[in-house]
Amino acid sequence: MWRKVFALFRSTHPLPSLSVASFAVLFGVSTTLSPERLVLVGLAVLAQQFSVGLSNDWLDAERDSAVNRTDKPVAQGMVSIPIVKTASLAAAAISLALALTLGSPTFLWMIPMLAIGWVYNLGLKSNCFSVVPYIIGFGILPAFVTLAGSEPSLPPAWVILVAALFGVAAHFANVLPDLIEDKQTGVKALPHILGQRFSAFVIAFSAGFASLILVTLSQNLNQTIGVVGFGITLALAAVASFLALKPKPPKLVFYLLLIASLVNVVLLMLGS
After folding, report:
1. Has residue 180 got a pLDDT over 70?
2. Fewer CB near the terminus (10 Å): N or C of the chain?
3. Is 66 a residue whose pLDDT tops 90?
4. Nearest to 171 by CA among 268, 92, 57, 261
């Protein structure tokens, strides 16, 4: 039983899910959300991410089995498709319920957050528009947080742009490690179409440009801290881009982008 529970947890894509939820909470700190609302925001985003992650493993089960994906518990028969499907739908319902407790604006914002992740898994991941869900999903996140405040409001446009650019970098970094398996199963996302070299450039440019915007436009950010954070981001993006050029890019590419995103969320928090 516990093996199945652990396998189900792995199917939620826990590291990316927990990372995105952490980003939301950290950004919430910068907007002075109350502790109660911070907890609700974090749990709502975590449930939303779990739902999308579980739907990915459920909808891709046949494709993952065909290429023997050892990182996918469903493909390895460790947990059944019906269980993962039920858990995905339950997590979606929980995310909507939690968003509703924060008010109607956050509830209405959670709907497209969920929908865009599911649309990606349902087929958008296999064509030239694959980056769109990441742009929208990451771009929506700051607005979801600020709308959860006692006085709901939208964040500055540049904050949404920064989040969207990191979404672009995350998409390319997430897809490249699976290039070989994707080709075998007919998946042809934008990074496949553009190729590894251009995709590596996109990763570096998107993350670097996003950080530059943040450091430049954050009015209260200490200059020294901003320069150091920008330098760390460039270094992480450069290493990720270099690794993205390998014949078989490692998953580390994606994790480096998560760290770069975390660095910039902290910068955003310090500059607010």
Report:
1. no
2. N
3. no
4. 261
Q: Provide the 10 A C-beta neighbour count for residue 22.
A: 17
pTM comes to 0.91
pLDDT, residue 44, reads 97
Q: Position of tokens 């650019």?
A: 165
Distances (CA, A) of 33 to 10, 14, 20, 26, 36: 30, 25, 17, 10, 8
> Are the CB atoms for 134 and 186 separated by under 8 Å?
no
pLDDT over threshold 70, residue 267: yes
Q: Which of 129, 130, 135, 131 is nearest to 113 (CA)?
A: 135
In this structure, are residues 170 and 163 in contact, taking their beta carbons and an 8 Å threshold?
A: no
- Burial code (b: 16+ CB inside 10 Å, e: under 16) for 210-219 equals bbbbbbeebe
